[in-house]
Amino acid sequence: MGFAANGTVVAIVAILAVLVALVWYATTRLVTVAPNQAVIRAGKGAKGQVQIFTKGIVLFLPIIHQKFVMSLEQRQVELAVEGVDKNFITTSVTASLNFKFDDSVEGMSKAVQRFLTHSKEDLNASVTKSAEGVLRGIVSAMSVEDANNNRKEFQDQSLESAVTQFAEQGIQIDAFNISSVSTPSRTVIGPDNMPTTIDYLEEVGKPGLERAKREARVATSKAFQESEAARIEQEGATAALMRDLAIKKSEFKAEQDRAEAIADAAKGIAKAEQDVTVAALERKALTEQALVEQERLDIEVHKPADAQAYKMRTDAEAKRDADVFSATARANSKAIEAEGSKKASIADAEARAAAKTVEAEASKNAEVFQAQGEASAIELKARAEADAVRVRGEAEGASIAAIGEATAKAEDAKAVALTGHTQASLAFLAISALPEIVKASSDAVSGIDNYTVISSDGASDAVKQANRIVAEGLAMIKGSTEIDIAGMLSGLLGTTAAPVSASAPAGASDEFVAERN
Fold first, then answer.
1. Which of 41, 53, 89, 249 has the greatest CB tally within 10 Å of its CB?
2. Residues 438, 462: Cα–Cα separation, whole Å
3. What is the pLDDT of residues 40-79, one digit of tens each?
4. Transmembrane stretches, by residue range (predicted)?
5. 144: number of Cβ within 10 Å
């Protein structure tokens, strides 16, 4: 039992040792690539070549693989180049270059081949020399004036050339900045055998400098003129303000004098008002003194006189009141007598008025009774007449209804009687009506008072007119009943007669004029 427990412990310890060994091995063999690094694994790999990793975790096996690390951080080198321009003028240029390794696979491969074992100083020196060569090439193709004046163009050309050249080395150029362009000073012997120091750019810039100085002097003069103009304008404004101030002071002085004059006048007015007040008080004192004197006279003179007058007036009023009382008593006696007579007259008048009222009321009642009786009689008469009219109307209506009924029955009997008659019987009935037709025609002619004939027939034309009327009547009967009375008569008489038409007889073209008054 103890042996088994010992074996289990040993196994667990062995497993833990293996795990620890694996963890240690992993930590020592696995490399995490930093964002600013490129890890190169050399040795046997999938392709048997150098492998470059810019991210992730890389496994390195002992003996098989070899590890290299290259920084991808940006670096900067300072450049100082002295060369000659296209005009053989010595030119000095200072610049700075920012670069880093190209992190693309192709660029990193080129950089690994060239700079894998280079230190930082070696790399900077190599890049500096290459960049200085680029600058000398650009300077030799330009004049120092163009390089100095067209600084951006100079910088762009330098950057473009550096990018092209360093791309073949696996280096990426981020920036190429030109700091300064200058020409070194040199000493020359003048005509007077005196040494003189000359700077080309300084000499070239002297005209511009003189022009700038001249412009500065002009600007200074202009500024001085403007300053003087401003000063003069300011002084004018100050003088105007002083003038306005003086005017204001004079206006204030005039107002002050006017106020003093008004004050003096006010003092005089106040003194006059004071004198008026004193005079009024003196007048009031005199008035009070006069009142006192008047009261003294009232007490000493007027009051006794008034008392005497009052006594005399009282005696006169007493005598007058006695006379008035006597006269009033007499008047009252007469008024009482008149009042009695008046009351008697009023009573008599009221009695007569009451009698007349009773009489008028009786007459009125009699007239009312008479009017009511007449109205009742008229109402009874109207009712009787209405009943009579109603009875007559009903009788006439019954009579008219009976006559209509009888007429209808007669017409029905005539229709029944005529039904089945022969043409001869109908002709007989029509002939029976001829006398009435002829009479009606003659009445129409006889009603004419004056009759003028314009015709060759003379008076016989009247007979023709009557015959024409009869013929037109027979034609009308024929047209409305289809009974030819003329034809029937011709058949009965056994004669041949011309058919009667509604057309006008011979001579109808003659003029016919009838006048009726």
1. 41
2. 14
3. 777 765 455 677 777 777 766 677 777 777 888 889 999 9
4. 7-26
5. 23
Which DSSP category does 420 fall into?
T
Is the pLDDT confidence value at 90 over 80? yes
Q: What is the pLDDT of residue 128?
A: 92
- Cβ contacts of residue 501 below 8 Å, gap of 6+? 471, 475
Encode pLDDT of 160-172 as tens digits: 988 988 988 889 9
Reading the block at residue 59, the tokens are 């496994």
Residue 511 DSSP class = E
Phi, psi of 128 (to 5 degrees): -65, -45
Residue entry with tokens 């992993």: 26
Strand intervals (E) in 302-372: none
Q: Which amino acid is at 423?
A: Q
Name the token pair of 364. Answer: 């009125």
Residue pair 123/100 in contact (Cβ under 8 Å)? The answer is: no
At which residue do the structure tokens 């073949």 appear? 168
Distance CA 94, CA 178 (A): 6
Best CA proximity match to 106, nearest among 189, 22, 194, 167: 167
The predicted pLDDT at position 99 comes to 92
452 three-state secondary structure: strand
118 beta partners: none
Is residue 82 within 8 A of residue 19, CB to CB? The reply is: no
Gap between the Cα atoms of 223 and 150, Å rounded: 33
pLDDT digits (tens, 9 = 90+) for 191-249: 777 766 666 666 665 676 667 778 888 889 889 898 989 989 899 999 999 999 999 88
- Distance (Å, whole) CA 239 – CA 232: 10
